[in-house]
């Protein structure tokens, strides 16, 4: 089957599906083929990827020491009481 | 590395320790409140410890624990909503957002400027704190979906199952969450002195 040539509009419309890995292998390949030759869409895709990486990084925050202590105490208690002590 | 069955406590803690910052950060983005985030993490860790025998593939410990964390948050979230619906609809004013705002259009210039691009300037000035407050300011229904997809890496189908909402609703909330998030980031960027490239029109 001849691979389909996507327009810039098609690519932008499906860009987030592509970045979210929601497309099947063939659809993802069609997008990648377009991104490899279209500077405008490539730039847009790189921008969204970079922003997405920053959003993902916002999901990592140094856990406060009291949370670490709480977790340790919790496990101490569970271990001391056996499996009957459900949270 | 110690044996899981010989010393489960040590085995569990050795895997838990490197994940705590991500567990807490994810819980904080989901709940927005440090105390609630700590409660969710502690509860998830307790559940994981008690269900350790159910973990068939030890290599999947991270994904398994984050799944427990998400479910713990969602149960608590539903309980607090005290409604029959599993995930509330964002209110009417939030639904007015068409979901078509893009930060890229505001920043992108089709030519290179000698002092560097606005996109570069934007990323260089984007503090993690600004990003966190922009995510936290999203309405619950939007924030939870974007955190599950972009922070935790769930598929749309998985989010649909977790929240008990149709796939189309996951897509539309995600689209609007991204639009609102980018609009807020654009507002912060303008306050920081970044001005539009003039390519994207005026945001509402």
N-to-C series of helices and strands of chain A: HHHH
Helix content of chain A: over 70%
Structural class of chain B: mainly alpha
- CATH class descriptor name of the largest domain in chain B: Mainly Alpha
Number of strand elements of chain A: 0
Name the CATH superfamily assignment of the largest domain in chain B. Answer: Winged helix-like DNA-binding domain superfamily/Winged helix DNA-binding domain
CATH architecture field of the largest domain in chain B: Orthogonal Bundle
Using the CA coordinates, give the radius of gyration of chain A. 23 Å
Main interface pair? A-B, 35 and 48 residues
Overall morphology of chain B: elongated
What do the pLDDT scores of chain A average to? Answer: 91
Describe the protein.
The complex is a heterodimer of chains A (87) and B (204). Chain A has 87 residues and is mainly alpha-helical. Chain A has one domain (8-82): Arc Repressor Mutant, subunit A (Orthogonal Bundle). Chain A has four helices and no strands. Chain B folds into two domains: 8-81, RNA polymerase sigma factor, region 2, helix turn helix motif (Rna Polymerase Sigma Factor, Chain: A), CATH 1.10.1740.10; 99-191, Winged helix-like DNA-binding domain superfamily/Winged helix DNA-binding domain (Arc Repressor Mutant, subunit A), CATH 1.10.10.10. Mean pLDDT of chain B is 86; it is low at 200-204. Helices cover 64% and strands 0% of the residues of chain B. Chain B has eleven helices and no strands. Classes of the chains: A mainly alpha (87), B mainly alpha (204).
């Amino acid at each position: 089957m001849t691979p389909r040539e996507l327009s810039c509009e098609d690519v932008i419309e499906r860009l987030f599906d592509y970045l979210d890995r929601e497309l099947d292998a063939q659809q993802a390949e069609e997008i990648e083929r377009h991104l490899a030759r279209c500077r405008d869409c490539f730039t847009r895709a790189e921008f969204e990827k970079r922003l997405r990486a920053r959003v993902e990084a916002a999901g990592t925050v140094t856990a406060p020491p009291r949370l670490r202590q709480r977790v340790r105490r919790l496990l101490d208690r569970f271990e001391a009481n056996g499996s009957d002590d459900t949270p | 590395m110690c044996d899981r069955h010989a010393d489960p406590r040590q085995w569990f803690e050795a895997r838990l320790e490197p994940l705590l910052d991500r567990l807490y950060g994810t819980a904080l983005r989901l709940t927005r409140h440090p105390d609630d985030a700590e409660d969710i993490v502690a509860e998830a860790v307790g559940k994981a410890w008690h269900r350790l025998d159910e973990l068939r593939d030890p290599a999947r410990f991270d994904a398994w624990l984050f799944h427990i964390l998400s479910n713990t948050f969602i149960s608590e979230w539903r309980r607090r909503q005290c409604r029959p619906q599993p995930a509330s609809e964002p209110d009417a004013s939030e639904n007015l957002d068409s979901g078509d705002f893009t930060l890229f259009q505001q920043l992108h210039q089709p030519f290179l400027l000698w002092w560097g691009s606005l996109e570069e300037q934007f990323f260089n000035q984007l503090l993690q704190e600004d990003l966190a407050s922009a995510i936290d300011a999203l309405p619950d229904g939007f924030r939870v979906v974007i955190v599950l997809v972009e922070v935790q890496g769930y598929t749309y189908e998985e989010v649909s199952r977790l929240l008990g909402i149709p796939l189309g609703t996951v897509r539309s909330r995600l689209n609007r969450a991204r639009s609102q998030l980018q609009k807020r980031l654009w507002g912060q960027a303008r306050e920081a002195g970044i001005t539009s490239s003039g390519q994207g029109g005026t945001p509402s």
